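> forwarded from #structure-qc
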């Protein structure tokens, strides 16, 4: 691509994204994967965990979100990305304070709480397995949406005392474990108080730890709530990039109406030159 493309760099609790309005910019979807790899490179591009394209809705929604991981793979949905895109949609006149957003994993709703604080309703869990053995670990496996975003949740009280390279090796092994046929985002979590947890996520598609993971937070709180370890109401999830809050409804071993609330930030806006 040689024509300049206008973009916005955003992050939600450190989970960072390049946002492009594909309704206005000439971005062929056939080249989106390559564009994601180029723009998300932290050495030769803008640098981000993912690329988000705003496209015209195909159904009854304000617009459509297409999410690409930094490795160019198409993601089902991204929780922190959806919060950021809700702010983008509001500030760019695509939607009001309450909005409906199409994603590959299904419809999500977004809500403006304040100038920087946004809440989204994540896709309901479509798969819940509270005990799945993987690489010698007892994990909870959850998929949000349909097709589902796969998450493994591992309660590990000492994860923040393990050397990062050793924890990364375990995260990579679990991410590719045969126990998770689709691969999985791997969430290490510890309880730190009443309805308060500390966590970090090894993300599929980024292939490393990120500063925050929104769908990871939703999966963590779903798992811990169904195990009776948290209430499911305003559960604080502290991740390296900041604090996020999850509220959900649960009954009969399942969960629904999973809401994720947290900060958003517009870092800068610009225009590509030579890509």
């Amino acid at each position: 691509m040689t024509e300049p493309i206008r973009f916005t760099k955003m992050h939600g609790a450190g989970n960072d994204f390049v946002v492009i309005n594909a309704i206005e910019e000439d971005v062929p979807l056939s080249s989106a994967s390559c564009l994601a790899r180029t723009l998300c490179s932290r050495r030769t591009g803008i640098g981000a965990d993912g690329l988000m394209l705003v496209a015209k809705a195909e159904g009854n929604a304000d617009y459509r979100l297409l999410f690409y991981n930094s490795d160019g793979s198409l993601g089902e949905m991204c929780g922190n990305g959806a919060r950021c895109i809700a702010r983008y949609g509001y500030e760019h006149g695509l939607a009001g304070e309450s909005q409906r957003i199409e994603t590959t994993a299904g419809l999500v709703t977004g809500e403006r709480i304040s100038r920087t604080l946004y809440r989204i309703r994540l896709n309901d869990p479509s798969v819940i397995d509270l005990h799945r053995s993987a690489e010698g670990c007892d994990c909870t496996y959850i998929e949000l949406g349909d097709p589902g975003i796969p998450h493994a949740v591992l309660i590990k009280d000492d994860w923040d005392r393990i050397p990062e390279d050793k924890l990364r090796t375990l995260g990579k092994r679990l991410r590719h474990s045969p126990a998770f046929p689709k691969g999985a985002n791997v969430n290490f979590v510890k309880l730190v108080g009443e309805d308060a947890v500390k966590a970090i996520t090894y993300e599929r598609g980024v292939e490393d730890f990120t500063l925050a993971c929104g769908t990871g937070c939703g999966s963590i709180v779903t798992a811990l709530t169904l195990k009776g370890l948290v209430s499911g109401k305003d559960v604080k999830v502290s991740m390296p990039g900041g604090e996020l809050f999850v509220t959900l409804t649960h009954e009969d071993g399942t969960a629904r109406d999973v809401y994720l609330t947290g900060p958003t930030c517009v870092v800068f806006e610009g225009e590509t030159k030579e890509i």
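QC bot note: The longest helix spans residues 79-91. The chain has a mean pLDDT of 96.
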